[in-house]
Amino acid sequence: MKQHPFRPRDLLSKEVAGICGVARLTDKARAAYAGEIGKYKYGADSEQDTGILSFLGISEAAFQEAAVRIDNDIKLGAWILDNCGKSSKEISAFNRKVKLWWQNKMLRGTYRDTYSKRRRQLAQAKENRHLSGFPHNSWFPH
Question: Whole-angstrom Cα distance, residue 105 to residue 1?
Fold first, then answer.
């Protein structure tokens, strides 16, 4: 059976602690610990990770230890909220900041180009699937 390469959750996912980026950081922390992170950067090697950890006020080592020890996202989220000391207002502001940063990044350079290309490919594939069910009679425009 072919094994899929590691891919962390999306940056905008709020599945862990209700904070953007924490689910992705969790996946990367666990993968780095297991030696399966592949092409991804974790912790001090990643600008995103250092920004998230800085906001949380939790060290890379403490976060990774907790992510590995607590294998349940809900319980890990509770641990993070207990240890970061951030209010729901601060978390909401951080989430807005991350979302805005990501949207701006998507509108620039390669991310935008890659995203647009992938959207066109998916639209074409959908159109091809839709048209494949039609008979190729003369009444059907080619």
Answer: 36
Q: Is residue 6 part of a domain?
A: no
Alpha-carbon distance 131 to 22, whole Å? Answer: 42
> What is the rounded distance in angstroms from the CA atom of residue 70 to the CA atom of residue 81?
14
pLDDT for 54-73, tens place per residue?
999 999 999 999 999 999 99
Interatomic CA distance for residues 106 and 112, integer angstroms: 5
Residue 103 located in a structural domain: yes
Q: Which domain holds residue 94?
A: 22-132
Q: What is the mean pLDDT of residues 4-8?
A: 88
The pLDDT of residue 113: 64
Counting the structural domains of the chain, the total is: 1
Cα gap 124→133, rounded to integer Å: 15
Comparing CA positions, the residue from 106, 108, 98 lying closest to residue 51 is 98
Q: Half-sphere exposure of 75 toward its Cβ, with a 13 Å CA cutoff?
A: 7
Cα–Cα distance, 91 to 21 (Å, whole number): 12
